[in-house]
Every structure is written in structure tokens, then in C-alpha cells.
Amino acid sequence: MTYDVIGRTYTHTRATDPRIAAAIWDALGTARIIVNVGAGTGNYEPPDRDVTAVEPSAVMIAQRPPGAAPVVQASAEALPFEDGAFDAAMAVLTLHHWTDWRAGFEELRRVARRIVVLSWDPSFAGRLWISADYFPELIDEDVALFPSLADQAGALRALRVSAVPIPHDCRDGFYGAHWRRPEAYLDPVVRAGISTLAKRSPAELEGGLARLADDIRTGAWAERHADLLELDELDLGYRLLVSGEGAAAPGA
């Protein structure tokens, strides 16, 4: 299911989190001319650089704000640019929507000298309480959607792989972002901005949501996850992969 179908209210709950943005922009180093592949509505595009966005979904393109970087409607697997056209290519939480992630990575490497990808390590699938406690049937699906971190790093020829911890008040409402705010998952607007949940029918989610609502009401969730309530940020498996020129030197 594409974002032409499930992405119509994306901007209601998905925004740039400044702490995640800082990690991505630091990884871009001194690159000035950048392509953002799978750009969506433009989150995480650095405002002080020359950015070209690539996005296949017309629905997502229509939600890009005024003044956003120019956008080309195309796919990651067939970028319409010459070899080495960019100082850097970035891709943020998007490879699980590509039809051929290896081909997409090859295209990133073809058109840019430095690659920065924010992705996810599927070995964390069973550690996300929202899946483990309420939607265990999603665990195998998540593992299938994402190649192993080792495969991702190998295909990208990453010289750096670093954890990106998620703040408890993360402004970008992706699947793991509400790890300390369980009530958020009960909001249909929030779920509409999370592809993992948005592509499920109400009937498929009904049981898990009912159990979650009951656990919040009774305090069972807070008791079970009291340790999380003491944390300001958490490693949920989100990883920044960097390859190409200067990739081995953080902040270069």
C-alpha cells in the first residue's frame, strides 16, 4: 500500500524532530548540494543547503510546504540524475517503501559522493512493546520489510553506523516514536501517519488497541513499563549509516 493511499494526513503527525535532524545534518558534513530520496513532505531537509527532493507519491508532494526544496517525482531505484551530480544523498526512514532497496542504494552511490541513510535494525522488532505486547503479528512483517543491518551496511558500503536514540517527546510520529506515550497509539490520526498501522484494517487492529486502552486505564501499562517512564531517550534500533567521502570522520 503506497502513500498515495495512506499518506493523506501525514503532516498532521509527522514533523522534523530537531534532535534527529541534528544527527542527520552533522552526518552530511560539508556537503552543499544534496538529494533527498524518498523525501515525502520534506522533513529533515537541511534549510541552509541546496536540496533537490525525490518522491514518487503525488499525495506526499502535494503536502510539501511553501518554500520547500524543488521536488522531482521519481523512484529511488531510477534516479533521473547524472553520475556524481550531488555532494551527498540522504534517505530518511524510507527504504522499506522501495521495491528494490539494493537497487536504490546503488542509485544513491551512483549520484552522490557521500551517502547518509537513517534506517532501522529489524533485530529490534521484538523489543518494541507496541508490537510485542499488542501486535505480535507485526513483528515478522517488520523483519521482512527491513533487511538486516549488516546487509544494509554492506550494500551501502557504510564506513559508519551509529545509533540514533529517540527522545520521549519526539516530534516525528513514526512507529517507535511514542514509546513513552502509549495513549498516542489509540489516536486514529496518529496511526494514519504510521505506515505499519495505517495499512491495517480496523478489524486487524481492534483487539490490540482494546488491550492497550484497557492497560492504560487500569495502570497495567505503566506498571509493566515503569522503567521507560524514567528515561528521556531510548535506543529503538534506529541507525544512521554513512558512506562515501569523509564518512569515517564524525562531524567532517
The largest sheet, given as strand count, sense and whether it forms a barrel, is: 7 strands, mixed
CATH homologous superfamily designation: Vaccinia Virus protein VP39
Tell me the series of helices and strands, N- to C-terminal.
HHHEEHEEHEHHHEEHHHHEE
Termini gap:
38 Å
Q: What helical percentage do the residues reach? A: 25-40%
In CATH, the architecture is 3-Layer(aba) Sandwich
Count of strand segments: 9
- The structure class reads alpha/beta
Mean pLDDT: 92
- The total count of helices amounts to 12
Strand content is 15-25%
Examine the coordinates and then state which fold CATH places here, giving the name of the CATH topology: Rossmann fold
CATH class: Alpha Beta
Can you walk through the features of this model?
With 252 residues, the chain is of the alpha/beta class. The protein has one domain (3-244): Rossmann fold (3-Layer(aba) Sandwich), CATH 3.40.50. The chain is 35% helix and 17% strand. Strand 4, helix 5 and strand 5 form a beta-alpha-beta unit. The longest helix has 17 residues, at 202-218. The protein is globular.
